[in-house]
Amino acid sequence: MEQREESEVVREGLPPGPGWPRLALTGWYVKDPWGCIRSARGRYGDLFTLRVMNGDVVVGCTPAHARQVFSADPGNFRAFAVDALGPVLGEGALLVSSGETHRRQRKLLQPPFHGSRMRAYGRAMREVALEHGRALRAGKDARVHRTTTAISLDVILRTVFGVEAGAMAEGRQLLIDVLEGFSPMVVFSRKFQHPLFPPWRRLERALGVLDARIEEEVRQRRGRGEHGEDILGMLLDARWEGGEPMTAKEIRDQLLTLLVAGHETTAIALAWAIHEVYRRPWVLKRLREEIEGLGGDPEPEALARLPYLSAVCDETLRLRAVVPDVVRQLTQPFEYGGWRLPAGACVSVEIEAIHRDPGLYPEPDAFQPERFLERKPGPFEFLPFGGGHRRCLGAAFSDFEARVVLGTLVTRLDLRPLLEEVPARRNVTMGPRHGVPVEVLAVR
Ligand code: HEM
């Protein structure tokens, strides 16, 4: 009894953590988040503080920590790294807003991402996957990540911006210029957003061109009185709670957020999925049998419902956490893992640590899709899309896209992986270091 009471004592302040200088610790974390977390966890346990450039981040590594953060009142938190991200994405962007503004924005932005809307996007997703699959050449080497990046970008162009299949080239270049400007330094630190720093100047220039293009598109569509069936069209139709439409600037900020949050993440997840599947002939065989059971040209929705294909996609997101953690800043003191943390500190849920917990996932470093058929993980045990009031807005969209694109490519392509990949930082997220090089054996 005495022991129980002692463990319930809530300590004030920040739990201990590595005493490294902030710059050095930030550098280590940015380069190798999983190595940095494992090392700190080994020394300090399941809850520790990382003192990094963006603040003091208290990292929790268990489902109980995830529950504490994701079930708490959103009023406890504001978005993380707003100082650096705000000037890039726009002060009105969902990723940087908090409190009542964030709640109102989520309400407005959610309908286009509701599961029921997926039918409208499925055709475009499948066509894009077929087109980029066919562009590969048998007998040549290719980088899978390059292909999945092109697929993810085209899916966004078609479903979000409504660009027609024949007119993709200009839109593609516009978005590529912006995305290439998102270097980690510029995105993670306000200090590098300086007119004398060439990467920042490049990003500003690219954003200027995109902004003008979006403004023009909004003006034209409003002028025509036809808003369109794509996500931009739905945003033009959307009304704030008071009944007024979004301004062109508000629409621009959210479109940029969708692009930044949705493009790289999806491309990486798909590249990892192909990497895992093609290295395991027995997985590929079972996947193909399941998909071929649907006939020659399956409906996207039928693909999205296939259990083994879904299990492969989920297992990929478990093993290869594209976003290894989520972070929130505290607006008021908050109790986390037996500590009462001060306002201003940050809390992080370490998704990767939970996904690799051997108590939840036996042999956690092995790729075993069957585990998702045998047991459905609890809400705080499988968190590729984060959780709570900031859970990924595009989760249903992304899940659907992964199933449709992977389900399309695996029946059309024979690939031979050329090496075993390791994760490395790719701009904001983590991805396969070498881009998944393969030899293309056949294209059907
Ligand atoms: C495999 C693909 C994806 C992964 C792993 C992923 C993961 C995440 C994670 C971990 C978060 C933070 C959640 C939190 O703070 O609790 C997030 C936020 C977000 N994601 Fe995704 N995402 C993916 C794809 C997408 C797509 C396709 C879109 C849109 C087209 C999207 C839009 C967003 C937005 C707008 C937010 C901010 C939500 C908010 O702050 O309220 N994501 N995503």
Structure description:
This protein has 444 residues and is of the alpha+beta class. The chain has a single domain (2-443), classed as Cytochrome p450 (Orthogonal Bundle), CATH 1.10.630. The protein is built from 19 helices and 13 strands. It has helices at residues 2-8, 22-31, 33-44, 63-70, 82-89, 99-109, 118-134, 144-159, 168-180, 184-188, 198-224, 231-237, 248-278, 281-292, 300-304, 307-319, 351-355, 370-374, 395-412, and strands at residues 11-12, 47-52, 55-60, 77-79, 141-143, 325-330, 334-336, 339-341, 346-350, 413-417, 423-426, 429-432, 437-443. The strands form four sheets. It has a five-stranded mixed beta sheet with strand order 2-3-9-6-4, with helices on both faces. It has a three-stranded mixed beta sheet with strand order 1-8-7. Strands 5-13-10 form a three-stranded antiparallel beta sheet. β2 (47-52) and β3 (55-60) form a beta hairpin. α2 packs across α3 and α13 (248-278) packs across α19 (395-412). It starts with a helix and ends with a strand. The model is unreliable at 1-6 (pLDDT under 50). The structure holds protoporphyrin IX containing FE. Protoporphyrin IX containing FE is lined by residues 94-95, 106, 257-258, 261-262, 265-266, 269, 322-323, 326, 384-388, 390-394, 397-398. Protoporphyrin IX containing FE binds at residues 94-95, 106, 257-258, 261-262, 265-266, 269, 322-323, 326, 384-388, 390-394, 397-398.
